[in-house]
Amino acid sequence: MNAKQSDKVATGVLYLMSGTIVAILALLLLYILWNGIPHISWHFLTAPAQSFEKGGGIGVQLFNSFYLLILSMLISTPISICAGIYLSEYAKPNRLTSIIRTSIEILSSLPSVVVGLFGFLVFAVQAGFGFSILSGALALTVFNLPLLTRNVEDSLQSVSFTQREAGLALGLSRWETVIHVILPEALPGIITGMILSAGRVFGEAAALIYTAGQSAPPLDFTNWNPFYIASPLNPMRPAETLAVHIWKINSEGIIPDAKAVSSGASAMLIIAVLLFNVLARYLGNKMYKKFTGV
């Protein structure tokens, strides 16, 4: 077998392996959507869950998932942007920055159940927040912060060095160059990474079982005062999310229509994550064209 034939065989094997992986993923997604979409309705998306009767929905769990996601992103985004700017623009290559980057790599590879146990001990027990949205948001911040920091650093480093030289040549300080020149240029990549991270966090379950809890108390949507105990915006109430609800249904299965609720909730979770990915690609391309004029 000559070199050209060997290249064709190797290319064919790579295409076969890639096609097999894509086919398995596509079949899995189609199976979940095929079984779950028929159970999705407006009543299913807005009605509260039932513990012992059939006909319940996922309204409270869906709201909790988005509320937790928004709260965790509000906490982690400013910290990750500041950390990414420091590592990309100000940190010198020395022992300290090497330890910081190694720590980020280790934190980003931690299993979510370990982050959940850490959040339970630190936020729920030591800080006294108990099973609450705040504990869950802080645990998700620990889970999400290394990923966002690495994304911000990579996006900033992808900006050409000539952009920095141009800003300094115009008389801008280093900080002004970062804020007015480098950050806007890296913004499409940063926003894309944030949305993809949000999609990953939205489907998180293990870290929230030990922090946000496994119960979803009834909410009073007529009172949005965050200090009111039954308010949807109360950060100190327990909040079962959609992913935790799916796990709980499949582990307990005490409601008569457990399979239907689980299938519908799983399909809704997949749809939400797919929408996050589509939105990330769309906004990334849109902002890239806006800032580059291509």
UniProtKB/TrEMBL annotation:
PROSITE patterns: ABC_TM1
GO biological process terms on file: phosphate ion transmembrane transport
Tree of life domain: Bacteria
CDD domains documented for this protein: TM_PBP2
TM stretches of this protein: 12-34, 66-87, 99-123, 265-284
Occurrences of domain ABC transmembrane type-1 (ranges): 62-280
Any Gene Ontology CC annotation: plasma membrane
Membrane topology: Multi-pass membrane protein
A single GO molecular function term of this UniProt record: phosphate transmembrane transporter activity
Main location: membrane
Alphabetically ordered keywords of this record: Cell membrane, Membrane, Transmembrane, Transmembrane helix, Transport
Intracellular or extracellular location(s): Cell membrane
Family statement: Belongs to the binding-protein-dependent transport system permease family. CysTW subfamily.
Protein name: Phosphate transport system permease protein PstA
Species, as recorded: Schleiferilactobacillus shenzhenensis LY-73
Lineage, top ranks: Bacteria, Bacillati, Bacillota, Bacilli, Lactobacillales
